[in-house]
Amino acid sequence: xxxxxxxxxxxxxxxxxxxxxxxxxxxxxxxxxxxxxxxxxxxxxxxxxxxxxxxxxxxxxxxxxxxxxxxxxxxxxxxxxxxxxxxxxxxxxxxxxxxxxxxx
Length: 104
Known about the structure:
By secondary structure, the chain is mainly alpha-helical. Helices cover 60% and strands 10% of the residues. This is CATRA-Associated Small Protein domain-containing protein.
């Protein structure tokens, strides 16, 4: 199936760029990276399909997967993003930065 063109409004494009940049520097408990990877996968699928609504939901899911508070002593240690996540963040950043906007 061919890729479809992703056309974003300027606010969604800015939100996606911001959260992708933030995600590249997050430190999370190991299992939380699974939620990040899932959100990134959904973003990629939505971008390839040109599905703006699904892309928007995936951006918000990625935001929610990020760090929300300090880690307590009894919680899992935090780690930086696995290589596969860093690669996907870079790939999606390129897609979003080059996406057309519906505002011109």
